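Sequence only, no structure available. Ideas?
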Amino acid sequence: MTVAPQDSARPPSALRSYLPPVLFVLVAGIVGPIFLVMGLVAEGPETGWLLPTGLAVTALDLVIGLLIGRGRHRAQVKMHHLRRVGRPATAQVLSFEQTGVRVNDQPMLVLKMRIHGEDLAPFEVQAREVVPEIRIPLLHAGQLPVLVDPETHEWEIDWDAARPVAPPAAADPRTPAERLAELDDLLRRDLVSREEYDATRARILDEI
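Reply:
I predicted one. Tokens follow.
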């Protein structure tokens, strides 16, 4: 069955994709803008290094933020395209391994999956994907919903359609406050959907 096109759905906004990571990186690397401002207002030979250092650090922050934003925007455009023309399918998780790389403090995994669906010839894929730790239990379940372009076999995991699963509370050494704080951070960085956030937050609160 083909997903019905959503004519009212708007393409992802580039501004909304780029602005949050740029602002986050600038705030996290606030030393660059501080040096920049101090270099503009301070006088004296002993402060001459502030302006070039501030410019260099701020420029580096902007580049990092723009790269993160570009990756985010590409992923959102891809999902928007698949939601319009893709077909729902199922991915059988054959294996997944840690790479030791973390992006935005979330692990990058190597996923090997077999994708199959109605009127779709099964095919296997292997890809590196950043998977928030809160979603890793979904991989242990063995199957994930995906959207597939039947012509190009371009695919994307449909996390919004996946059933939220949280690790058992007894196996999590973090306090409820720490888990709630991490959950808030994941939502702020758009790494979990509002539905996942609400369900997981309610589960944590029920355990208190």
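The chain has two domains: 14-83, 86-207.
Hope that gets you unstuck.
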